[in-house]
Write a structure and sequence with these properties.
Rossmann fold; 5-stranded mixed sheet; alpha/beta; 257 residues; 5-stranded parallel sheet; 2 domains
Length: 257
C-alpha cells in the first residue's frame, strides 16, 4: 500500500504557474505557498455574469416548486446564480427547501456558505460521472423528473442531453461565461509545473503562447487531461478529487514517487 506522504513532503524548489482567473487563483496559490512552492499567477481567463430574460421565470418556478431538483456543476454557477437572484429580490433562503445535487466539493462548499444543503459524491469528477450518479440515484423515478441547471454559456453537451435521453426534463439557464484574456506578458521562465483547471484554460494558454513548454502538467480532472493529450502533451498529474487540496496532494504524491 502506498504511504501517505503528502503531509510530510514540501514543494520547496518547485516553481508553479496558475492560469485561473485572479480571484480563483488565491486559494490554490495559498495552499501551494504553504507547501513551500514558488507560485506564479498569470490569469488567462476571466469570468463574467450573464443574465438572461428567462432568469426571472426560472426563479418564480423554483419558488413555486415546479422543479424537482436543482443541479450545480461549478462554484461559479452558484455564485452568479445567487448574485443575480439577490438582485431580483431573492435571497439564498428560497433554496433551503429545494433538493440540490452538486458536482465537486468546491461547488458544495459554496452552497454551504450560503446556507444551502446539497448532496455531493466526492467520487464524481466529471459531467459523465455526474450523469451516471443521477441515473443511479433516481433509477426508475428518473423519467418525468424535472431538473433545473444554472450553467456557463459554453458547456459540453453531456448532462442535459443525457438526462433527456433518460426521459427526464432539464431546464437550463445561462448565468455566466468564461473568456480568454489577451495577455502581452511573455511566458514566465524556469517553470517546473503548469496547473490547469479546465480545457478552456488550456485553449487560452495555447492561444496566448502558441505552444506548451516542456514542463510538468497538473490537471484537476480527466477532461482537462484529455484536452492536453489532444495537444500532444501528457498530463503528469490528475487530482484524485477535483479540488485545490486534491491538486496539491497529487503534485506532492507525484514528487514522492
Amino acid at each position: 500500500m502506498k504511504r501517505d506522504t503528502s503531509s510530510r513532503i514540501s514543494l520547496a524548489g518547485q516553481r508553479i504557474l496558475i492560469t485561473r482567473p485572479q480571484a480563483q487563483s488565491e486559494a490554490l496559490g495559498a495552499l501551494l505557498v504553504a507547501a513551500d512552492a514558488e507560485v506564479v499567477v498569470l490569469p488567462l481567463l476571466e469570468v463574467h455574469g450573464l443574465r438572461t430574460d428567462e432568469l426571472p421565470i426560472n426563479l418564480k418556478k423554483i419558488e413555486q416548486k415546479q422543479y424537482d431538483t436543482l443541479l450545480f456543476t461549478s462554484a461559479n454557477a452558484v455564485r452568479f446564480f445567487l448574485t443575480q437572484a439577490s438582485e431580483l429580490g431573492y435571497d439564498a433562503t428560497f433554496l433551503k427547501e429545494q433538493q440540490i445535487y452538486a458536482l465537486g466539493r468546491q461547488t458544495q462548499e459554496q452552497l454551504n456558505r450560503l446556507g444551502c444543503a446539497s448532496y455531493c459524491d466526492d467520487r464524481v469528477r466529471s459531467s459523465e460521472d455526474f450523469l451516471r450518479m443521477l441515473i443511479n440515484a433516481f433509477a426508475d423515478a428518473l423519467p418525468g423528473q424535472h431538473f433545473f441547471w444554472p450553467r456557463a454559456l459554453r458547456v459540453r453537451d453531456v448532462l442535459a442531453q443525457g438526462l433527456r435521453e433518460q426521459g427526464a426534463q432539464c431546464s437550463e439557464c445561462v448565468v455566466y461565461e468564461t473568456l480568454a484574456i489577451k495577455t502581452e506578458e511573455p511566458l514566465p521562465e524556469h517553470l517546473d509545473w503548469v496547473v490547469f483547471s479546465s480545457p478552456s484554460a488550456i485553449d487560452a494558454f495555447v492561444n496566448a503562447f502558441s505552444t506548451l513548454p516542456k514542463v510538468h502538467y497538473a490537471c484537476i480532472g480527466e477532461v482537462s487531461a484529455r484536452r492536453l493529450q489532444e495537444e500532444g502533451v501528457s498530463c503528469h498529474v490528475i487530482a484524485k478529487e477535483p479540488s485545490n487540496e486534491g491538486l496539491v496532494a497529487a503534485i506532492i504524491d507525484y514528487l514522492c514517487q
